[in-house]
Design goal:
By secondary structure, the chain is mostly loops. Helix content is 9%, strand content 6%. It is built from one helix and two strands. It has a two-stranded antiparallel ribbon. The longest helix has 6 residues, at 56-61. 0% of the residues are buried. The mean pLDDT is 78.
């Protein structure tokens, strides 16, 4: 068991006024900024366009029962 004389800095719990949750201080030596998303957005996937099947029109017109 440790005696609490650890010299390494640790995270602390900080109470946030008006909030139900507390937050931790950043870990020493870390970057507290969140990671950003991708720099450029990739184009949406291209759906292959082929011949229509016999029931494609019916499937497009159908609405699921929970709508």
């Amino acid at each position: 068991m440790t005696d609490g004389s650890d010299a390494t800095p640790r995270q602390r719990v900080v109470r946030v006024p008006g909030s139900r949750r507390a937050r931790l201080t950043p870990v020493p030596g870390s970057d507290p900024e969140p990671e950003s998303g991708p720099v450029e957005a990739s184009p949406p996937p291209v759906r292959p366009r082929g011949a229509k099947g016999p029931n494609d029109e019916q499937l497009i017109q159908d609405v699921p029962p929970h709508y």
